[in-house]
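note to self — DONT lose this again. spent like an hour looking for the file last time. sequence + predicted structure for the chain T wanted, 289 res
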Amino acid sequence: SEFLQSEEFPDRLRNFINSWLGEPWRDTRVEVKGQELLAQEGDYHLGEVPAEAHFLTAAVDVQLDHFWWEVVAWGVGASSWIVDFGRAESWENLEDIIVNRQYPVKGGGLKQVRLCGVDSGYRADEVYQWCTAHSDVAKPVKGASQSLGGRFYSVSSLDKEGWAGLKLLITDTDYWKDYVFGRLRRTPGSPGAMHVPQNCPEYWAAHMTSEQKTVERNRKTGKEREVWVKISQHAPNHLLDCLVYSTLMAELCGVRYLSDVQEQHRQQEVEPERPTGSWLGHRKSWLRR
């Protein structure tokens, strides 16, 4: 009876959930629909870099026995394009995809990934080893377990863990998910919009729609906060995590400072070649990439 009297009124329903059931209130605020995301098509195909792009970033979501990866192109106004994504089975596969692969630019030319974030939630020592071997392009990242005090990310030294000089990027994943979906809601072709390739595989959208934004209330303090949570325990969200970390990499590369003046000179720039070979052969600073 109490529920029936409350279900049409959000305030009453919240009181019913909190007081009568003794459960935390969760009010779904943002639900992402796959077809809406796939409608964000740009004028390019999977594996192709749009001509407007200045640089590429990537991210890797590390699982117990495999990896998910994603490459994103970035341009003026933080406009972006999903370039490529997939599953890899080994670190050697990732080296070919992230470090060595050259992505064709529409209209001519090639580009390589400038900076890649590698999730260190699983197999941390392996991640640190791979990032050390490819320090010019790979950085270990991890989602924050608590508030960062208003910061979007922080940097932690791994010296105490035996990885002298290696820095771990800790990020506010809720902030960057808000950023990503805000960009995906912009009209394709407009400044700052995020685009997907033509005929984008539907499984990409399945990963992207695996979470929704809710309001959670702390039982002890009564404080509320908005968080992104998985819709179901088994929903795959790996490519969403990759897109979040790749967006952070774009921030580190200075995407917000790209200007129309730089766009005029971009075609004259020559993309630096990266030497191929084993893990230990790459040591350039990523700032020069």
